[in-house]
Amino acid sequence: MWDTIANIFPYAIVYTIPLLITALGALFSERSGIVNIGLEGLMIVGAFAGALTINKLQAAYPGEQWTLWVGLVAAFVIGVLFSLLHAFASINLSANQVISGTAINMVAGSLTIFLARNITGSGNIRILQGFRKFDIPVLSDIPIIGRLFFSQTYWTTWFILGVLILSTFLLFKTRFGLRLRSCGEHPHAAEAAGVSVRKMRYMGVMISGGFAGLGGAIIISTYSGEFNGSVAGLGFLALAALIFGQWKPLGVLAATFFFGFASTIANVSQVIPSFQVIPAVILKVFPYVVTLIALVLFSKSSQAPKAAGEPFDSGKR
Q1: How far is 42 from 36, CA to CA, in rounded Å?
Q2: Three-state secondary-structure class, residue 153
Q3: How many CB atoms lie within 10 A of CB 88?
Q4: Neighbour count for residue 246 (Cβ, 10 Å)
Q5: What is the greatest pairwise CA distance in the chain?
Q6: Are 37 and 259 in contact (CB under 8 A)?
Q7: Considering only CA atoms, which of 192, 261, 267 is closest in space to residue 224?
Q8: Quick check: 151 and 159 in contact, CB under 8 A?
Q9: At what angle do helices 2-32 and 234-244 cross, to 10 degrees?
Q10: Helix or strand holding residue 226 (H, E)
Q11: Contacts of 24 (CB under 8 A, 6+ apart)
């Protein structure tokens, strides 16, 4: 049993990281008052931008690890730019935010596949090499904990955990975080206090777009290695993790690890003997069934930002 858990755990962390950074981005957006259903599409756009950038750079500079980091930066930037469509529709046009996010998902999937087919001829973009796994010296030798948390890890894991700590500090210990949260709770009171609600909401959506794009690129540069026009519903899992985590960074961390562990069971089950007796179809739908059950159980006690999803009209003409 211990060997099974020890084998699964590093994979669970790898699957958790893209979910975590995407859900963190959604946290900024919804805390500002904008519901972002378009996380799936933004992850796809980020995966496409990251894969294309890394593919071209690795062709020119084979074996260089910095090309992967440049790909992550490109994915972040493209995610920010693409999220402006949702921000403009939701903030300036006061459009229905669910419909706007759904449109982002539809446009992203079709547009990236179209571009990939024109660039590669197949619709897929493969990178030559992703981030390398490594064991952290000394820490990986700690009994039990070392094998679970500090072995077979990626640099992106520790980078995203650093972003989590920074995001927690930014949201709850800075003036920016206070203003952002006030726009999601009482936007009219925030405006009366001199806060630009539109500006803060734009920033929240842009951060969510950048983080979701980064999540998509991390998938490509760690365990996937190839863009194929899909992120297997991880954007929706990230949104569920946000709700499950009660719109709090540490809650989101716990929820994304829970869903990441469920996804791991589905994806690595065929190489673990103890899981091979379970029909493959059951394991494949397992993370999505778990998500539905979790949402049903916790939806009544969820405490979303009060103004999330509501258009804001300052009354100024």
Answers
A1: 10
A2: strand
A3: 14
A4: 16
A5: 67
A6: no
A7: 267
A8: no
A9: 80
A10: strand 226-227
A11: 163, 164, 167, 211, 249, 252
The token pair at 96 is 């229905």
Kindly give the residue spans of alpha helices, DSSP state H, lying in 143-279: 145-149, 155-173, 175-185, 187-192, 197-219, 234-244, 249-268
The token pair that represents 191 in the structure block: 């405006």
**Dist. CA 239–CA 291, nearest whole Å:** 10
- Note whether 226 and 133 are within 8 A (CB): no
**One-letter identity of residue 286:** F
Q: Which residues contact 317 (CB under 8 A, 6 or more apart)?
A: none
Encode pLDDT of 124-170 as tens digits. Answer: 899 999 999 999 988 888 888 888 888 889 999 999 999 999 999 99
Q: Using CA atoms, how far apart are residues 104 and 45, in angstroms rounded to an integer? A: 10
Distance of alpha carbon 21 from alpha carbon 14, whole angstroms: 12
Over the stretch 199-249, which tens digit does the pLDDT of each residue have?
999 999 999 999 999 999 999 999 988 999 899 889 999 998 998 888 999
Q: How far is CA 311 from CA 31, 93, 186, 209, in A?
A: 14, 9, 12, 19
Cα(317)–Cα(297) distance, rounded to whole angstroms? 44
Question: In terms of C-beta density within 10 A (0-12 exposed, 13-18 middle, 19 or more buried), how is residue 188 classed?
Answer: middle
Q: pTM score > 0.90 for this model?
A: yes
Name the token pair of 32. Answer: 């500002």
Element (H, E) at 227: strand 226-227
Nearest-5° angle of CA 57, CA 75, CA 132?
Answer: 60
Dihedral pair phi/psi, residue 125, rounded to 5°: -130, 115
